[in-house]
Fold this sequence. Notes:
Elements: E1 9-16, E2 21-36, E3 42-52, H1 54-65, E4 70-74, E5 77-83, E6 89-95, E7 104-110, H2 112-115, E8 123-126, H3 131-142, H4 151-160, E9 164-166, E10 168-170, E11 175-178, H5 181-193, H6 213-221
Parallel strand pairs: 3-5
Antiparallel strand pairs: 1-2, 1-4, 2-3, 2-10, 3-7, 4-5, 6-7, 8-11, 9-11
Amino acid sequence: MLNAHLRFGSLTYYRRTEKTTTHFQLHLDRFIGEVAPDPPRQAKTHLLSVIGSETQISAIVAAIHMDEAFTLEAPGVTPIRALLGRDAQCYRGSLQLSDRKRAVRHVIGVSEEFATPSAGAGRTLLAHSEPSFVWASLAHIHGLPGIPEWAGWFHRQLSRYDSLVPLLGIGCQPVLVKGNREQFLSWLSEGVRTGQLPFPQQSGPIQWPRINLGQLFRMASG
């Protein structure tokens, strides 16, 4: 986490009406999005996390709910136009810093698709591409039978069938997984049939590793 602030991006908000003009820039520490080829440099945004003053954060929350666009920049990332889409959700908080009298305000905006994953959509958005996390997430979302030790094998199947699509991430390593429950079950069936997926030697409950969002983001930030 050394010099983590140097990896921050920025979010610029601009809105002009007949009577007023609102224009300011905030620090952005996390972002997940799909960059579309048309229109150029526009991103279908699934998560953004920014910090700023109370007034600025309130304006950003209002803009998200009105489905307005922002401009994002980050080291190594060409400026893009970002939209969270309709029915996006916002989660506000405060960060009390030792050298500040007033708390810094924080908001996380999440798209409807990312907030409420659907097993029948044929696409799953994940905040990290680490094999254990990908396998545990898909097993939970799609109700797949298996054990944690199958993570590496399953990840290789996803790569083999071009089912892993890297997404644009700032402060994280997100991925889009393409496929449905029937497809994943067919892979698992073949793996068990050919002996590539061994069953546990002892019976009993399966203990899955617990990985929270904070751990994933720390892994990505190094």
